[in-house]
Design goal:
Length: about 200
């Protein structure tokens, strides 16, 4: 028995709403990732997802865990003075570049969708003082995980060069073990298997 046209259209609409960040799937817990990092060769302290919102993870048809993330959907706690939106030109570039890198065999995030918006934001494309309204877009990115090296730099002690420190400095003993347990359980199961056989 086939799916009727109205049901198909309704499903497409629901998918578009989720992929644009206008709707949240039941059971999803959207969040912005806090991480630290280096810029211009110096520890820059807390950075974080300023325009990326993780929706959660799903098990793909390959039985692999996949994280879903929206880029450009709006403000996060780490947006600082920005608006958290992405413009169409940069979203197209991200979509094309991620797929080109994947085709070249370079592990990277992949773009599952690109949804345009009727809203606009003001951007100075060439930083020449000639700001213009540009159409917004949202890219849904997928990856095995969006955890990165900087996710663990949140525990960093005071940096000798910059004087900066991680926002979770002093909390490593409480927070690091569950983070490592999560990584091993979801992304490095072979370590769990080795540990259980010894």
């Amino acid at each position: 028995m086939g799916v009727s046209e109205p049901e198909t259209e309704a499903a497409k609409q629901v998918a578009a709403e989720v992929m644009s960040g206008n709707s949240i799937v039941e059971g999803s817990e959207p969040m912005a990732h806090c991480y630290c990092g280096h810029q211009f060769g110096v520890f820059a302290g807390q950075l974080g997802d300023g325009r990326a919102i993780s929706l959660g993870d799903i098990t793909a048809s390959t039985e692999e865990l996949v994280d879903l993330q929206l880029k450009g959907a709006g403000l996060t706690p780490y947006s600082r003075r920005a608006d958290g939106r992405a413009v169409l030109r940069s979203s197209i570039r991200e979509f094309l570049c991620s797929e080109a890198m994947w085709a070249l065999g370079i592990p990277t995030t992949r773009a599952a969708s690109l949804i345009t918006s009727d809203s606009t934001v003001v951007r100075d494309k060439l930083y020449t003082g000639n700001a213009k309204h540009e159409k917004c877009a949202v890219v849904m990115r997928v990856a095995p995980t969006f955890i990165r090296f900087g996710s663990f730099e949140i525990f960093k002690d005071v940096d000798l060069h910059s004087g900066g420190k991680g926002p979770s400095n002093g909390l490593k003993d409480n927070m690091l073990p569950p983070m490592l347990d999560y990584l091993v359980q979801h992304h490095f199961k072979e370590f769990q298997e080795v540990d259980s056989t010894e």
